[in-house]
User: What shape does this take?
Amino acid sequence: MEATEQHLDTRRAFLLKGAAVGAGAIGAGRLLADPPAAFASGGLTPGDAAILQFLAAAEILETDAWQQYNELGGIQDSEVPGGSGNPAYTDALSVLDSDMAQYIHDNTDDEFTHFTFINAYLKAHGVETVNLDKFRTLPSSTATGAQQIGRLTNLMQLTVDTSWWTRYRSDSQNPDFGDTLPQAIPDLATGQHPAIPRSDADLKPKNHLQAIANTAGFHFAFIEQGGTSLYPSLAQRVTSTEVLRILLSIGPTETMHFQTWQDKAGNAPPLTDPTTGLTFPNLNADGELLQTNLIMPEPTIFLDRKFPVCSIIRPIHTEGAAMGAVKALTANGLFIGQSSEFFAVLTGLARAADAARSGS
Assistant: This one.
């Protein structure tokens, strides 16, 4: 179904009721209909359209996760409506930084604008926009403050890859070269852990709630590091200078988010969750690779080992970048409970984006 101009008036309306690609538009395992070679005057190539469609889907999913965080631990207002806040969870997040509620709100607001803009740009060029409303089937937290609506993403059973922490502190390893970096919080990379309270029962004991807030802090950075890497990776495949401008303008905002969240994650207090056994160690006890105030990316190898080290965004390889993002989010547990059709749709969008080449 097509979004109306009224739907574009508010970001929330666009998320909940926005444009096209519903059940009738695509089925399990099927890609969006191939767009023609160009649309309108100076229109989009199929490759540029596919990249933007995948990014719209990624931003919708990201917005869904951030909206849940904002309902419980952010600021609920006319910019980011929904939910009524959870004082206990908000207090636990504030241990990482007293401004966490404002940062969560602003990050959520940013993500709404990203997907609404990309979808509006696609529509203006005669290309199908992206709508994942059919898949809003996952349960909400029942903790005080959360809306009881269907969700796209799961925040209550997460396995959080924290190798982004060591990746940005290593001067000799880069995933673009096939390097695998160690986990900063090994316990987070195993098992399934809540990043929001599942119910009011999770609000105590105190260290259990703080472990949930700590998990959220590291998950915030995980999500935004993915965007930090994804945008420059896909930018290397676009054709239109205007589409390149879009990716080079939105991508750095993801980096600004990531820089903020990696700094706040480092303030997570060392503790062991009495309920699950999840342990957050004292990161400053284990040398420079885990040192919490090294939030500037350390120079590392780039392009070829023969060159001097250089401070860069990493990774930014282009082969399979979109599918890599899908796999990382799936391994994270963000889609636990989703249908096979959801995975088929998301995989189809990713494969189309990865197939894009400049000039095609």
